[in-house]
Amino acid sequence: MVLHDDELDQPQRWYGTNLVGVPTRLLASTAFNAHPTPLAIAGTCESHRGLFALLERAQHPGEEQDVFVHYLSIAFGLRKPPAQELIGMGASEQRRWRSSWRKLLQGWGMDSNSAAGAVLKGWVESRFGLVPSFHKSPLTRFPSPEWVVYLQEKASNRLNNNNIYQQLDLLYEFCQWSLRRIGAQTQAKPPQHLRLWRGSNQCEEQVIAGRLQNRHCTVRLNNIVSFSLSADDASCFGDWVFEVQVPLCKVLVFPELLPGQVLQGEQEVLALGGDYDVMARYA
Known about the structure:
- This protein is an alpha+beta fold.
- The chain has helices at residues 24-27, 30-34, 44-47, 49-57, 61-75, 83-86, 91-95, 101-110, 115-128, 145-155, 164-186, 231-234, and strands at residues 134-135, 137-138, 193-200, 207-210, 216-228, 240-247, 251-253, 268-282.
- It contains twelve helices and eight strands.
- It is globular and about 65 Å long.
């Protein structure tokens, strides 16, 4: 990707290649949100046909979750080895099991601007071509100290190891498979969007069209963001609350997708960002 001088301070124009077959500028747009199409990360389902064959035979959501967790545990060595197996391992190999999709999501839930958040933003950048606009502070002109911090944290081998991007690829595809199955079981014509809410205090710099005071406006969100399932929950995170129609194909995690406590917020949805038309209200 080549940056021209007038693009150095406009990260939203730094769209690169992606692995989902939709031009990144389109994927980030309100036009795509209004008329979404299914997305698939190239090669993921094809490389793990066994997982999805097992999922198709599952009889209930709990079984699907168990299949997913067990498969990734085996495929990526996520199970902590028994004490007798640790004896012959070096220190780095003993820590390998800790680099997992679950630990990463838990890190995001505690602080989206942590190193775990940087790895997740880096994964979105790699797979969907969406460049982050914020990590600890606004990511504006490049190069800058703010960009150096983000680049260092997303590449740090403390969390970015054990094929973590491939783990997240499978998490995304499992989420999409689950949403399709739920839709097929509950409605003749499955919905294409989730009605979600997001609370924010830093709103003026996010608005790219319209005005907050007029309620309807267009905002530019970070490349991956958390939403809430209710306006009341969202109001806990900011004075302004955005009501958003998020395409199902942009969802990475939703409540009840996975067993156990994964994200801090029980009603939290993790989804791709970009430009969104929103209804804004002051909480």
